[in-house]
Amino acid sequence: MNKFYGTGVAMVTPFGAGGEVDYPALEKLINHLLDGGVEYLVSLGTTGESATLNKDEKKKVWEFTAKVTNGRAPLIAGIGGNDTREVVEAVKSFDVAGYDAILSASPYYNKPNQRGIYEHYKAIAETSALPVILYNVPGRTGSNVSAETTCKLATDFKNIIGIKEASGNFDQFNQIMRDKPEGFLFISGDDPVTLPMMALGAVGVISVVGNAFPRQFSDMVRLCLQGKFAEAQKGHLDLIEVTRLFFADGSPAGVKAALKELGVCGDAVRLPLVNVNDAIAEKIIAETKRITSL
Fold first, then answer.
1. CATH code of the region 6-232
2. Active-site annotation holds for 164
3. Which of 15, 70, 115, 216 is spaced 20 to 30 A from 24 at the CA atom?
């Protein structure tokens, strides 16, 4: 299978009490995920609070992640932004050692039209030494990468190899699956609809929930890849409530509350994010205990 079939995890970035990157906890997280059987890792995607890390911190996190992973799984680096020139420079200067692809979120806030989105990704594709995975998440960016734009980019640039789709729009999913080039990877970017997306033809997920429950989530996804959707349904339903809770009061604060309960890393986030409220935290802890006891 393609190295990006199955479960990828958009890793959180653990922070210490003073807001510094907690590298021992990051190492523990990486091992937790790989021991949990996930297929690949995403370093400094948006779940990694990449918007709040400076260039030096990003460089160090990427290098550390590659060193700890040590070839045990494919690695993807999250490199995106809303200034195309700045993103291109970041891609150009990125040390590709240990990495297999770049995941780049569509520009946020600017609300570019489809021509602007196409030109943005064209500039990245023409610069990148690594394959590029598009990331469509309109709920955060304020604009949608249409099915037509996705398929045109996939057709025009052979190093644009897939899309992480988090629009929640199944009409759009249908169009992408119908019109995309053969081999172009359709990847779920939305944990609670991963199973139905895979029934449609998605090859897996880049997950937030997988940070806390890598074994449970990746087992479910592998059953889907085998076409065993009836068997996968139990795992899907077991995780529905905790998935809802992880996003109820801000992400990645929700999943970090579970990771703290599991002893993997602390729950610190960087402003403007804050920890989940006490009521949500209590429910997350209870669900975490329930799931780990299954």
1. 3.20.20.70
2. yes
3. 216
Strands (E), 68-223: 75-78, 101-105, 132-136, 160-165, 185-188, 204-207
Name the residue ranges covered by the structural domains of the chain.
6-232
Q: CA of 216: how far to CAs of 32, 33, 213, 266, in Å?
A: 13, 11, 5, 21
DSSP annotation of 91: H
Residue 71 and residue 292 in contact, taking contact as beta carbons nearer than 8 Å: no
Q: Are 221 and 194 in contact (CB under 8 A)?
A: yes
- Binding residue numbers for pyruvate: 47, 206
The mean pLDDT of 57-64, rounded to a whole number, is 98
pTM comes to 0.97
Which residue among 99, 118, 121, 135 is the active-site one?
135
Annotated binding site: 47, 206
CB-side neighbour CA atoms (13 Å) of 69: 26
